[in-house]
Amino acid sequence: MASIQRIVSPLTREVAYRVQxxxxxRPPESAxxxxxxxxxxxxxxxxxxxxxxxxxxxxxxxxxxxxxxAKDYVETxxxxxxxxxxxxxxxxxxxxxxxxxxxxLAEVTPDRISKARDKLAGDTFTRGxxxxxxxxxxxxxxxxxxxxxxxxxxxxxxxxxxLSFAVKERRLLQRNPVSDIRRKPEPRGRTRFxxxxxxxxxxxxxxxSDWPTLQALVLLAITTGARKGExxxxxxxHVDLKTGRALVGETKNDEPRMLPLAGKxxxxxxxxxxxDSARSEYVFPQPSGLPGPYEHFDSHxxxxxxxxxxxxFHFHDLRHTTASMLAAQGASLLEIADVLGHKTxxxxxxxxxxxxxxxxxxxxxxxxxxxx
Length: 372
Known about the structure:
By secondary structure, the chain is of the alpha+beta class.
């Protein structure tokens, strides 16, 4: 006998319908659907197959490999995502396919997923290339890193989405096994930013880089607060050097935004335009002359950091540097959020301690005007 329950999410207020079919002598089977019509259809189909002896809940999952599901998911679902997100999820699913090689969907159990999750969190990877010590000449291998809790959780989310596809659209599983998996704790957002002295040393090191364009990229990052991907994929067609504006079409929030260009960043872009205008449509092209932007410039970036004597600093931290500079000039959290391209103030709350002086001045001005 089937029962259907209407569920409203306390967070998103989205409505879903949970179906539960009970059978004598066996545990109940359940599934969730976005509307009642699908819920009723699934319940009727399941009850019919049970009555006619055609219901074998684990048969389809045993016949289908995880690799086959991943391929089906990539071909059917990932086409709806933008190119960057699609490539990211494909890479994440490739990693899961390596862990579940030769396994059927029925064998992708919560315990196997949790062990793979812990392996993902424990494995190390490197960035950059081996380099020589500036004084001794000793060859130093690239640094090793571990994936953050947030990165591990993004991998789990990609797996969960694929297995939800198997549950809801392919009817290969009765329940998503990722539902039983604990996520890794994620630290609060970093607030690492450069001091005036650090900033000067870094820009000097970037100007002496083997990739001469690095200084222009870093200047642009510091003065606009734009993300690495937004800047590196910037095209000359979207840059107006006369008015000092650049249009970023592809953003993390899927909302185009205009970047103001001024000062040394604008001067650097004008110099690049004179030098490289006929070579590529991208502002930061590959030095080799191959088509596309120079996305993999990490070796030059880390070399500049070493030359400047700066540790524990990511390219993304240049955005925090922008925020700290804005706060020092009296910008409000709302203005900082607007410059950085955040839709809400949640992400800029980390800078609230930097705008205390500005808040004090606003309150003092109010008191003076009201006589309180």
